[in-house]
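Hey team,

Filing this mostly as a record. A colleague (T.K.) asked me to run one chain through the structure pipeline before their review meeting, and I want the input and output archived in the tracker in case anyone asks later how it was produced. No errors, nothing strange. Just documentation.

Input sequence:
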Amino acid sequence: MVGTPYMYRVTKDDGSLAYRTDIWSLMQIGAGDFDPDGATYHGSPAALDGPQSCSVVCDPKRVVLPSGQELAAEAFWADEFAGGRKLPDRLEDLVIYELHVGALGFGKAAPGTLDDAIAFVEHLSALGVNAVELLPIAEFETRANWGYGTSHFFAADQGAGGTDRLKMFVKVCHQRGIVVILDVCYNHFDPDGERAQWAYDSNDHTRNIYYWYEGNPGDYADPRGGYIDNISTGWAPRFDEEAVRQLFHLERCIPRLRLSHRWFPAGSDEFDPSISGPPCRRPARRSGCRLRGQVSQAVDPHDAADQATAFPDG
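Output structure:
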């Protein structure tokens, strides 16, 4: 059911149980800044930091407006170009403004949100820019952050407003002839990804499927010494794993986000704003991906005897 929070109950390869979020989630319920850090948690999932919270069932074919009204995606995007402004179609014509959404909270008690970014579009238009590059906006650790410690690549940070607000930002920009570029970071995992990628289905460092590990634990004074430090936010992804590579595949990423009816292929000298993305197909995440444990079922944390069951270690 749309709106239902869920997690996966994972039986790891050593038989132990763990609760993990959906790495392919379109929404994390946590819009707060609280990390239980391993302690039993009895509070509201919505108060948690996104990576430590629950995934939420979403319908990408629907958009929820600030009023609470729901629209079919086709109806929402129908006036995407109502302003009559043509998007630039050559890279050399772009005048790019780099925007950190959180910085729009300057002078306020909390970081800026996508609502602030939507209000900022008029200023961007007045400046004469025709492209805005958002610093990473996928779900990341804590509220005040550059965004590079990503945990869920398909879920816009809920504390910033979530995926539907991001769609609204894109539409407002397109109505003013402004291209939206998303800065994404595929060499940065959330360093505190206990509910996300970390030890997803194995406690063996050499079998930690999402994290790059070299050698054997006995090779190091500290067994964690085998993880490859990306010299930024934490340890690097294990790029040779198909489960990791699927997360970063362009043909899967862009259509899954459904941020517009148009998308621009990266790495080309020219791009065509009339190109339509391929249909959204959820790939088989476990078949052929060498997951070592077993994802037995999805669980609703509200159905647990208490939330310590759904959050047994934090």
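Quick notes for T.K.: The first helix runs from residue 73 to 77. The radius of gyration is 20 Å.
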